[in-house]
Amino acid sequence: MEFTHEIYFDPTPKLKSSPVQIFFLPFNNEKLNCYNCGDKYSDTLSYKQKYCKQCLLRYIKSRVDNNEYFDVNIITNNTPCNKHEPTRDINFTTRNIQEWCEVCSEISYFKNYYVQINTKIQHIFMEKDCKLCGKSIDEISYGFKMCSNCYLIHSGWIKSIFDTTVPILCLPWWDASNKSKACNHNLKFLTDCQKWCSSCFIVYVGCRHCLTTNIIFGITNQTKCRKCKRVSDICIDFIDMCGGNSIIAEYLISMKTNNQSYNKIACYMNKGLDPLNVYTFIECELKDICSKKTIEWIPYSKIDNLEIIAEGGLGTIYKATCSNNFVAVKRFSNSKDISRHFLNEINSLHRCYNTAFIVKYYGITQDPDSQIKDYMLIMEYASDGNLHNYLRENFTNIKWTTKLAILCQISDGLKTIHNENFVHRNFHSGNILSLKGHKKWVIGDLGLSRPANNSSYNEIYGVIPYVAPEIFGGDLFSKNSDVYSFGMIMWELTTGCKPFVNTEHDINLISQIIVGKRPEITFDTPECFANLMKSCWDSDPFKRPSIRKIRETVDDWYKKRNKTERLFIEAEERRSILTRSGQLCPQFIEKHPGAIYTSRSLNSFISQLLNRPQHVLNLVNLDKWDSSDWDV
């Protein structure tokens, strides 16, 4: 990284840069023992700033000049001392570090040494005037404050490891705090002068010659002290932490990036106020983006007790533990070369993170096996299984009120997805998951229905009975195709069976779906329910209702706000009769061996259809199919 054409800037013009490194101050004020020599740290009388007396003594002995390298206040402890006869007066005070005595001196405070001040001790009286330049700091000066003439902040841009620029603040003091000023997470300490936050990706690099600190809002390879011009290599191989994948590394950082706030940080000016106000500025600018839960990189070593619970054409689902909590882990087969499109999908689903009826996604990890290296998604574990299993095991006891409650939650989740201008693409009962003893239903597998290494949007994956007919005609997945799938889930709630379970899922079934074949509607289904379901199945995607309209309708039914209440009471009576007689029981339906309910590539089927002459005629005649021809 080159540092050229820079205008010289001295952040502490009244202080000199020390010729030797200053090791007696820690970069983490919470540490008990000295990083350099191992001795126990002492505390300054004010503000509990830690320092090592042995390393300070060595430093003083190594220096013979009286240059000011520190803004320090030293007083006497009134202890008899052979070096100072008579004993120093109780009012003795000095700012010359060379006059510090290990026997009779105490350091009251370092001015150019910042720690997070304990609120119980912050109202200690400080000097009203700056001891470096004489400027009045405050008429009534309480608490830790700095002089805006003597402590100057520089802001600007620096090149990141991804060839973009990120903001940098060059602070004129030694920052020994152990928490990020943006997100308040604990910092990770890399060396005795480097630390970073793996949550908000802010890096702190201190100069032990000048006691200055650079705060970098992103990952860079190097940084330079503005005072002494010394360059420091930054010891964070973030790309390697992300499995060596620069796309993932850049993506994770981008989720914590706010361009508007970054522009303000890069143009920061103190305007004559207390320089320490910069921390409040950082917190205010970044608190919103830092408070948002984002998908993180989770080390594979934190994932334990992997147990396969489902396998499909695109990957494997595991139950596992992470930090002593149950999680679900989705392995994407052949995902070593993960694509940017896959990360765009994850970013889209993350926008729905705080929605009640969308499964929570926590992070990404990678199998370290040198041959496999599959990427995995860590997400909320649905302890009560999926909707299909629930229907199959409990169908005879599931009343219409329960079915409507489930539909309300599902439609709410899908509405959120569509409001984010996102399409699910793989919406079926296996991706509707149960929590809290079947009282809460969430939508999972958002938009991840293609292989992780597939960057082509032309590849179509899905489960044939849930795929809208226009998709087989070459159209892209859309909100309308999601609504078609929703209609199939409505039907599944009425029967306890997956659609077309007794039919082979081949090109012949696809051809029949294109010309209007739909599952048979059961006798107990209320007319209003059947009509909504059929409108979702309409061969013309533009005639299907929006999920917003569906959500309003189902909510009306569930809350009994219109005249349909009687229809559902009668439907419940018919359901009871049919289930008691065994006429409505999914266990008695024989599954065809060619009925495949795992997501798979459908492109070969689509190619065959498009090459059939009659297929063109079928597509032309789709608008002639009238959904009212179905019998209830």
Automatic annotation (TrEMBL):
User: Does this UniProt record's set of keywords contain DNA damage?
Assistant: no
**Pfam families (alphabetical):** PK_Tyr_Ser-Thr (PF07714)
Q: Does the keyword Ribonucleoprotein apply?
A: no
Gene Ontology MF annotations: ATP binding; protein serine/threonine kinase activity
Q: Which residues form the Protein kinase domain?
A: 303-558
Q: Which UniProt keywords apply?
A: Kinase, Transferase
Q: Which domain of life is it from?
A: Eukaryota
Q: Which SUPFAM superfamilies match?
A: Protein kinase-like (PK-like)
Q: What is this protein called?
A: Kinase-like protein
Q: Which organism is it from?
A: Rhizophagus irregularis
